[in-house]
Amino acid sequence: MATKENFVICRGIANDHAFGIFYGQNPLKYSFPLLLLELSSIIIISHVVRFLLKPLRQPKVVSEIIGGIILGPSVLSRNKKFHSYMFPDNADYVIKNLGLNYRSYGEEIFGQGTGESFFNLGVTSSLAITAFPVLYSIVKELNLVSSEIGRMALSSAVIGDVIGITGVIIFEATKQGEHRPIAALFYLISLAVFMASIMGGVRQAMLWIVRTTPEGKPVDQIYVIAILLSVMVSGFFADMFGLAIANGPLWLGLVVPDGPPLGAILVEKSETIAMVFLMPFSYMYVGMITDLYSLIDDWKPLFYMVLAGYTIKMAATLIVARFLDLTIRDSLTLSLIMSLRGEVELLLFLHWMDFQMIRQEHFTILVLLTAAVTALFTPLISILYDPTRPYMVNRRRNIQHTPPNTELHIVACIHEEENLYGLMKLLELSNPTVDSPFSVYTLHLIELVGRSNPVFIDHEIEEKKDNQSHISSIHNALKIFQETRGEFIKIHPFTAMTIRRSMYQNICELALCKHACLIIVPFHKKMTDNHARTRRIKQVFQSVSSNVLAHAPCTVGILVDRSPYPNIVNGVLRSSMYHLVVLFLGGADAREALCYADRMAGSPAISLTVIRFLPNRDDDDTEMEKKLDDGLLTWFWVKNEGNTRVVYREVVVKNGEETIAAIQAINGDCCDLWIMGRKQGINPVLLQGLSNRSEKSELGVIGDYVASMDFGSRGSILVVQQQILRGQGPASAFSWCKKWQ
Prior knowledge:
Layout: H1 31-53, H2 60-71, H3 80-86, H4 91-99, H5 116-128, H6 132-141, H7 148-176, H8 181-212, H9 221-240, H10 247-254, H11 262-289, H12 300-323, H13 328-337, H14 343-354, H15 360-384, E1 408-414, H16 418-429, E2 438-447, E3 455-458, H17 459-464, H18 473-484, E4 489-498, H19 503-513, E5 518-522, H20 531-551, E6 555-560, E7 578-584, H21 588-600, E8 606-615, H22 623-639, E9 646-653, H23 656-666, E10 673-677, H24 700-706, E11 716-721, H25 733-737
Parallel strand pairs: 1-2, 1-5, 2-4, 5-6, 7-8, 7-10, 8-9, 10-11
Antiparallel strand pairs: 3-4, 6-11
Helix pairs in contact: 1-2, 1-11, 2-11, 2-15, 4-11, 5-12, 6-7, 7-8, 7-13, 9-10, 12-13, 13-15, 14-15, 19-20, 21-22
Membrane topology: Multi-pass membrane protein
Protein name: Cation/H(+) antiporter 25
Subcellular location: Membrane
């Protein structure tokens, strides 16, 4: 039996800070400058590696593992002089305590060797389970959080973590009782008492903090500080009871109420320091133990065991996914995602090193396999699975090709209460009738803060379950609006809590499932009361609307609402006439905008002016678009020839400057709503000479100008983009007109 050697190192007491090199002092002999150098080195090296690997679509965890290995004895610390300066004899203690608050001290049995059965059980169990924190970070980088495969993988990981935690408890109890069976009983009793204190005491205190915090207000800083300090307290008690120091903060984190106000502010206060300053020390410590030169023939059995484990897990996941009717491509993607590895596995390997379950060469091969598998599988996932692929439909879902006497399905996005009035006003202006009612699927978009797993809520199902926990003032306002217009408009409320980059996936998926022909997305407007909040909301709006425009399975309307926000009770339309202006510059988007305006013109409370802009010279490249425009406009004029509330005019211009001047001249008339196409099919002559900066704007060149402060209009703006079919060209306007004859 191997004996454990003990060493005693005597060090002189030195100051933490040097006076400086100008006093002839070496700053590397002082603890704090050395700590800063170590932190700077791992961050710089990891970022350089990440930059170099970016074309290969590598996740962040791979570059951080490689950065730690580069600093370790495999590369730079191979030089003894570098190692002695950079990592003195107490570096192991400092780095490990900064980055890895999980190690158990105390009971003597933790230092004893562990049998082969524990080793095999530990390795096979770790391969069977996919840790949620690892999976979430990589899935988030791939922007798959709200995708079907992403949600399935995250849900499976949560179940796996529950099983894994249970397995760890059983393993720890078995290990405790290996030499003294009574120790296992004491372990379980300590565990029960500790968890009861966390669940019963700490959880209830946090819920009390949430209840006493006024809505919309931040949590008092004293509570935030107390909770952050309780992380160290929980680690202390967990270590004192022999539960492993990491279990205390882990269980404490599980009982924190997710989302705002408490969960969100805890993430805001702690995420940067934990992820940017403390986590690098973890990878540095992993790199210090990883030694490529320690690999000898003894590592091969472990390598084959791990390789077989990965293969069996991938095959099992693939078979189960196929049994659940997933395609082969999606099944393979899911099996690759469930095989990803990261920081949780590294902590587990370090824990095995503490238990002497593995030696340095075993640890090295496990770290290398972790990095290799994640590095290989991540780009394969991004190649195999496109989250926008399900939205690519070849069937027309737009207003132009929807018969007038059928139900119109609309998805309406809401970011905050200020969007409500503009949305309700637009719905009423859209002229729902008994013959052509609206089914409106409102989607309240909430940026995911303070929790990891995305949430999608169908409030109609929640109401049937008598669950009122997610009811907000927005849904109450929508309910009142439906009661006043229930005969013509049916509201179906939904809520999506997800990260900003994935919001468009929820929108497009809802539109696809509900067979919507129109998605209404609010556009950011200036709010002067809170500039920081304005910038954040603007970024969210721009990100969401741009992605929806690029991937929507139907027509998209971007609404710039400039109306005041009154108290909504009995309808939103005033008794006087509403004046709508359509700026028709040609193309598919303009035709879609005209068809939408034609529906609105059926209301007796609306007057409509259609302005068609024509170039002063013909362009062969746009001849087909012109024919389609002529056919639709002829139909529109014949239909509304006897309607005195509809006016049609044509304006001939020779460049973009004259187009802007003509629009500015129209602005002299009072307009409540400007309607226009975004950009598809516009004759380039009409925009010649205008700035190219607005071409990629969500509103297009003309929409961006009308929405600008220079234009000076108080009317709201609706910019329409017709559904872009995958693999098909525009349909003939003449064939569409036959549906109305």
